[in-house]
Amino acid sequence: MFAVPQNAPTVPGPDFKPMMTSRLQLVGFVLFLLLGSWCLYEDTPMSNRGEWPHVVLRNWHEFGFFRLHGQLVYNIAGQGLPQSPQIYSGHRPFSLYPAYLVTWLSGSDNGLWFHLLLSLAIGVGVWQLLGRRPIGLLAALLIVFSPGYLRMTPLLDPLDVPVLLAIPFFCRVRELLSREKISIGAVGLAVGLAAIYALLNWTTLLAFAIVLAYLAAALPGRFHRVLLFGLICGVAGGAVLAVSLISKAGHSAAAVSSGQMAQWYNHYLF
Q1: Alpha helices, H only, 199-257
Q2: Are residues 173 and 58 in the same domain?
Q3: Distance from C-alpha of 248 to C-alpha of 252, rounded to nearest angstrom
Q4: Model confidence over 151-164: pLDDT tens digits?
């Protein structure tokens, strides 16, 4: 009854293309993210910025980074420094080096500039991972304005910050592995990024696992590259983990009691 003739002309429909982010939207996103992050950071309790990582940064600024050998010296108000440093061995000092570099360049030790740059890097990374579409901007804002993010990043938690830095790291690696041809320079860059990132803390191993799982699913045609990059990450992460364990064992070389071993375990692997 309603049969369509076989020779009837067909009307081509418009090709569906996902809406991409305009330049104006991106600029507005960056400005809103920075302004919101600044307001929320200033509104966080001062107790969040009085934790031992901030004490370490202030000691580095006041007494000199190289004078304290870049160690996690947490003497409150610098008491007893530099003669009697109290060194926290529960984490790698590399986890605070990015924050110190930013605060040193900005001339301020309250961590605000590092928080703004970290939030911007994570926001842009999330937007890129979600296809550079407007929905990516919304997802990025939900992340950097979330209570959990604002609870952990202002205090410069040495476990969480290295994992969060995996987002911009991952974006760069995915771009390199997606290329049709990879030059020697690109391979060197990927190795360098993996080695530098792995130095931050042992929690980067978790980020490596997440990144490799995604790359294996997202780049099936580049599986051999993903496998090679996984080998690089495994070597870099394993070396850092081994050095960390040996270093911590050295700090507790005189400790033979089970109570001291339990303290070593809880401080590092809790």
Answers
A1: 204-218, 223-251
A2: no
A3: 6
A4: 888 888 888 888 89
- Which of helix, strand or coil describes residue 177? helix
Domain range for residue 197? 165-265
- Cβ count within 10 A of residue 109: 18
Same domain, 146 and 29: yes
Q: In the predicted model, is pLDDT for residue 137 greater than 60? A: yes
Q: What is the band of 182 on the pLDDT scale with cuts at 50, 70, 90?
A: confident
Task: Determine the Cα–Cα distance for residues 5 and 100; give it in Å rounded to an integer.
Answer: 74
Partners of residue 87 on adjacent β-strands: 73
Residue 44 counted as domain residue: yes
Look at the block and give the residue holding tokens 């978790």: 206
What is the C-alpha separation between 157 and 155, in angstroms, rounded?
6
**Amino acid at position 113, single letter:** W
Residue 213: both structure tokens together: 């799982």
